[in-house]
Design goal:
Blueprint: H1 2-105, E1 109-114, E2 117-122
Antiparallel strand pairs: 1-2
């Protein structure tokens, strides 16, 4: 009977050891799941960093396009102003020519200033 008690006792020890090992395995499995969760979160975080870098690159390109558009707008505005000045000068010249023609056909003495020259009519 001594062997049976001893064998039974050994079986209880083995069973207890197996239970302890299973509990440890469950604990390690839970820790592993937690670590995997954090690893997955870190993987998503790194992909978010990649997306943010791409976004920053696109924002820089948009800023360049905006600066280019502003420079182009300034050139167009300067051209419009120069065109306006040219049209005003053409109107002024036409007005002066008309005054010259009126002076040439008129019978009185007139003096006008045209392009830095004084024109006098002596009819």
């Amino acid at each position: 009977m001594d062997c049976r008690v001893s064998a039974g006792h050994h079986m209880d020890v083995y069973a207890s050891s197996i239970d302890d090992i299973l509990e440890d395995e469950e604990h390690y499995a839970d820790q592993l799941k937690e670590y995997l969760f954090y690893a997955e979160a870190l993987r998503y975080a790194s992909s978010i960093d990649d997306i943010l870098e791409d976004e920053e690159h696109y924002a820089d390109q948009l800023k360049e396009y905006l600066f280019y558009a502003e420079a182009l707008r300034a050139v167009c505005r300067k051209h419009e102003l120069m065109q306006y000045d040219l049209e005003m000068a053409a109107q002024d010249l036409a007005s002066k020519k008309q005054q010259c023609e009126e002076l040439a056909t008129g019978g009185e003495l007139f003096s006008i200033w045209v392009c830095g020259i004084i024109i006098t009519n002596l009819k």
